[in-house]
Amino acid sequence: MSAQPTLLLVHGAWHGAWCWAPLKGILEARGWTVETVDLPTVHADDIVGLHLADDADAVAQAIAAIDGPVVVVAHSYGGVPTTQAARADNVQHIVYLAAFALDVGESLLGAVGGVAPSWWVVDGPLATAGTDAEPAASLFYGDLDAAAAAAAVAQLKPQSVLAFQEPLTEAAWHSKPTTFLVTGKDAIFPPEAQEGLAARAGSSVQHLATSHSPFLSQPEAVADIIEEAARA
């Protein structure tokens, strides 16, 4: 296998591979091979009825398609299917970016208290993010300028609510080394909760004073953290 791993980037809820563009460009300019995945509970032609297992299968397939070692980088909800799927032999490290490093039997909905947060808009089988009182721009992109935040919000898509309800049956962090980036100005995921998950997973912990989306607001700093983990 190649000495240098491929980096696989897994986006969070409502997002897509588009959100990695600044970070991906920086990493590729530094000599890394970078792959991304669009999770089917957001990006399939028909997302109704799709659930966590579909996303985990997509991550597993992306890992299997890479010839050589892999470092999986997951953001927010993306940590859930990554945790389910990343036990493959060629996975060298997992980097959780303000991500849910859950354990077997846990679901995202359970991790946030068992009730959908006030800023989730659930419409039957679908959920969107952000309300007039709690806009997505402030929740996800509080440290971006208004134009950049608006451009990102315009690309958010509905997601199947089943993705948030299904519990994990595997937890890769039990057998894989992990790094956890705690986002200190996060309006969605309290830093204290992030610290708790990182401690439970035995992660190496890094900190940035950013919103929930540091790959957009501080991509150079995030690239540094990923490189350090990938070279460990």
TrEMBL record:
Highest taxon of source: Bacteria
Q: Does the keyword Ribosomal protein apply?
A: no
Which Pfam family name is an example for this entry?
Abhydrolase_6
Name the UniProt key words of this record, in alphabetical order. Answer: Hydrolase
List the molecular function annotations (GO) for this entry: hydrolase activity
Q: Which residues form the AB hydrolase-1 domain?
A: 7-224
Name of the featured protein: Alpha/beta hydrolase
